[in-house]
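[AMINO ACID CHAIN]
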Amino acid sequence: MSSTLLEVTRAAHEEVERLERLIVKELQNEPSSNKDRLFQSHRVHHMIDSITVTTRKVVEIYEDTDNARKDEIAALGGQTSTGTNVFSAFYDRLKEIREYHRRHPAARVVDANEEYEALLKEEPVIEFSGEALAALGLKTGGTVQQRAERLFLMKDTPLEMLDKKHFAKGSRGPEQNGVAADPEVNNLKEIALMEAEISKLCELLEETIERTKENIVKKQALTYEEILEDIREVDIQPDTESDDDDQQIYNPLKLPMGWDGKPIPYWLYKLHGLGQEFKCEICGNYSYWGRRAFERHFKEWRHQHGMRCLGIPNTKNFNEITSIEEAKELWKRIQERQGLNKWRPDLEEEYEDKEGNIYNKKTYTDLQRQGLI
């Protein structure tokens, strides 16, 4: 039945589809242990290999380099060398089917699902070729258990410390593989180990290193800004001219000048918002560049002088107040609030007459003036 190319093609497609469904079903099961997970990986690997081999066979059939597939399709249509004969082709095909069942009387239909379900339960056979051994110059003979034991010796024992009986004949031992106790090799190993440790430490301390960098940048930024503020306070213009009259400072962004007579870095300019202008009417509409300079000026001589001229004490109540009208209005409200708590002797000073009656100073004075007391 499977001797025809079309039947072989159909069976190959069916096998590929079954294996794909089986892989999906296999991966839907969560292994309960590492051993089961390893077996599952091997089973999936074997099924993928089977799909690859079967697919290659199907591709070769479709390529039809010998025209066998084309001839078979033509034969199914009744086309022969003598012409088209559909009935002859039908009876030839029927004869072939009967002959197959005559030669295989015990043939039965096998449920492919049952056959593939068994694959999910069996343990895969893992071949140990002994190559992870030949590369090290060790013996590759013996049973799988013996080869595995030789390989596991390498886990805890250096190659140069192994007994000579484990090495293959003709091998000079560990020296043949270039792993002898060479000082240069040992130095390289120590360097590699040190590099790995440093890399690990950098990963663990990455956050601390980044915070340290940020703190250094902030300190440098504060130093630059304090110098700029000192220059502005004493109204000193930095000398931006070089000894060479022909040399000009390139400052297309018009950044403020630093203590060295050169524009400050742009990142520093953006970090402290030196592009923001704050004007204070109390200071005579003087401009302050940057939020920090604006907050500091409330305690500086220029703002204090302006407040004294207005007759207003320069207290923390007037911070962030730059308008003269706002400052006067706030000072008026403060005076009114203080007036409610002010000592008023005419109303609050008490007097007592001969009969023990208590009066305030104003009432007592009026009664005394009228001769009633």
Q: What stands out?
A: The first helix runs from residue 5 to 27. DSSP finds 14 helices and six strands in the chain.
